[in-house]
Amino acid sequence: MSKRSDISEFDLINDYFADMTSQREDVALGIGDDAALLRVPQGMELAVSVDTLVAGVHFFPDISPSDLGHKVLAVNLSDLAAMGAEPAWATLALTLPGVDGVWIGEFCRGFSELAAHYDLQLVGGDTTSGPLSITVQVQGLLPMGMGLTRSGAQVGDDIYVTGTLGDAALALVCKRDGEDREDMPQLLGRLDRPIPRVEAGIALRGFASSAIDISDGLAADLGHILQSSGVGASVDLDRIPLSPSVAASLQESNDWSLIIAGGDDYELCFTLPPVHRDQVASISRRIGVTMTRIGLIDAQSDLRCLLPDGSLWSPEHTGYEHFSRSDGDN
Prior knowledge:
Layout: H1 9-17, E1 27-29, E2 37-38, E3 44-54, H2 65-83, E4 86-96, H3 101-117, E5 121-129, E6 133-143, E7 158-162, H4 167-177, H5 184-192, H6 198-203, E8 210-214, H7 218-229, E9 232-236, H8 244-253, H9 257-261, E10 267-272, H10 277-287, E11 291-298, E12 303-306, E13 312-313
Parallel strand pairs: 4-5, 9-12
Antiparallel strand pairs: 1-2, 3-6, 4-6, 7-10, 7-11, 8-10, 9-11, 12-13
Helix pairs in contact: 2-3, 4-5
């Protein structure tokens, strides 16, 4: 990114961010003042989530700015999806090593295209100079008392995941190793442009007993549900939905770590009583998102991953953790 010193923060806001997203009627005051003024409808609760993405830690420095704009919003919307919330507003804090109008324009395009899909308005933020990092806070709305949480799983509940797992982790490994594959564009699409399962989260309100988005790996994130709910679980590894690319990789390596602990899936993991299996199938057909039953909540105190022959498989690590030396760079 080229550096310029002849443009002010206010110029950046006016030129790129002020009209970056659509305007919502529940925004009394948006970008341009000391704070935004937002109207939360009566009978609704506000869900708030924030994530920071840092170059070289959460994304490769050579990611396209459009993909990065999409991803920084998508990973936050994934958190709202896990709560069953409908996206409404966002703030953006952007730290840039320099000002490149083309780069910023493409970043804004990736961000705003995803925001438009969910009628989300950018209502404020900050820009500053420094190593490239982006912080996005999102706010969403949901009916009072209807939020999905991590703490509601009950013994006997089914465990489901949306979509397929392991594609983004496989892309990460291939990119690090310099492996050029025929299916690399599809894999990179899962890594750089994840699809937040917002529609699935909203549809699961009233059915799911708990939910979480799979950002750090299935074992780690399902583990958060188990810890919060005070339960255990068994997962049948051969039930986990895989794309053809990941299935082929697994057949070669016979290593489930990529799928269980790879992270960056941004799918939903949720639990619900077996009595709702028909509703899950109906929701899946209606919104066009696969929902696969992979295991069962039980009274034991841990997560057990079962191979097709019934034996236990244990990963060396459960998923991504910040500040751990053994973690990767994404």
